[in-house]
Amino acid sequence: MRPDTPAEHIAEAERLLRTASRYPEDQEPLVLQAAAHLELADERERASALYDRLLAGSPADPHLIKALQAANLWEYGHEAEARALIAGIRAAAPKDPAPWEVIAEALEAHDELEDSHAAFTEAATLLVREDEPLSVPATALLTGRHRVRRLLALPHDDWDMVADTRHTGPIPLDELHDPKRIWALGSNDPAELRAEIARLRAELGDRRAALSRPFPVAVLHWPAAELAELLASYPGLQPEYPSHEAHLNSIEASLRDLASSGTPNLGIVTGSVPSYEAFAASEKTSPSSPSLLAEYATTLAARGKAVPWPPAPSDPCWCASGRPYTDCHGAR
To answer: Is residue 208 pLDDT above 50, yes or no?
Structure first.
């Protein structure tokens, strides 16, 4: 069950922190997830303390942590400190889209639209290349920039056109990002109100799901050598994996079924026999137990080991065949 109440978010944060203490090598993603739950519970000072804790060490992604800290600080009255962190991130010009998106959206949320537009544009200039495929994170930057430009009543430019063409939702970006939509909420016409509710759901549904479920619904993948070792050691698992090819096809089929049912935030985690055996020992359960496989996958996802699914069509397939996804398991 996904956390919905402040108490549930706090309980989930504490669970993640306990897991982080057991797996120090995965501390950063687990503590970041815990901080996100504390923010959702409005425990912003506790979340800030977690960000400071990570920054006091040697984090793998300091710019993202500083961006999240800035957004959090601004929400509970520390505007000057938040602005200083944002200025430092912009000066550092990180090559990762995530911190740019966080600071630009923080500026937008506080009606600093000119600065938000500048941050989105700086990020796009730095990260979007004409000779490279547009990644999902880069597309998110262009979508955010499109939204802010509509709020500023700026005319469409080339990047806005790219955002329009990359958008796959049922409602066009121009309609989603139309500033005049706010007036529809004051209409006395039930049909207009229903249409506006549908637009808001389309725009906000994915984001709410991502916030309430900070790690993916993940399916377990065994490379061929690992699966052979697993079945040689624990033949009782043979019915779960008739062959490696069947295992790979089952992963893709399961993920497509989940996607078609509306489940967001899907991913794949890759198992290894030593890791699985260590997990079984920590759970005081036999590795031969089929029910342990799903728990192992969920724990790997909670430790930040999941790779988002599906890959972009031109990206390498998740199965490690080396072929583009669209020519491998992504083929229809």
So the answer is: no
Arithmetic mean of pLDDT over the chain: 86
User: What gap in Å lies between CA 168 and CA 131, rounded to an integer?
Assistant: 22
CA distance 170 to 216: 23
- HSE of 48, CA atoms in CB hemisphere, 13 A: 15
| Percent of the chain topping pLDDT 90 | 53
DSSP for 93-141, please give it.
Answer: --S-HHHHHHHHHHHHHTT-HHHHHHHHHHHHHHH--TTSPPPHHHHHH
* pLDDT 10s digits, 305-327: 888 899 988 899 999 999 999 99
Distance from C-alpha of 213 to C-alpha of 216, rounded to nearest angstrom: 7
Label each residue of 151-185 as H, E or C: HCCCCCCHHHHHHHHHCCCCCCHHHHCCCCHHHHC
Question: Quick one: 6-176 is in which CATH superfamily?
Answer: Tetratricopeptide repeat domain (1.25.40.10)
Look at residues 196, 193, 100 and name the one whose alpha carbon lies nearest to residue 148: 100
Q: At 308, is the secondary structure helix, strand, or coil?
A: strand
Task: Kindly report the length of the chain.
Answer: 332
Look at residue 120 in the predicted model and tell me its pLDDT.
96
**CA terminus-to-terminus distance, the chain:** 33
Spatial contact of 329 and 315, defined as CB atoms under 8 Å apart: no
DSSP for 52-68? HHHHTS--S-HHHHHHH
* Sheet (strand 217-221) strand order: 217-221, 266-270, 307-308
Question: By three-state DSSP, how is residue 219 classified?
Answer: strand
Domain boundaries, the chain: 6-176, 180-212, 217-327
Cα 207 vs. chain centroid, distance in angstroms?
Answer: 9
Under 8 Å between Cβ of 41 and 10: yes
Please, where are the H alpha helices in 213-290? 224-233, 244-260, 273-283
209: amino acid identity, one letter: A
Which pLDDT belongs to residue 239?
Answer: 93
Predicted structure pTM score: 0.62
Query: 150 Cβ partners below 8 Å, 6+ apart?
Result: 174, 177, 178, 179
Contact 113, 152 (CB under 8 A): yes
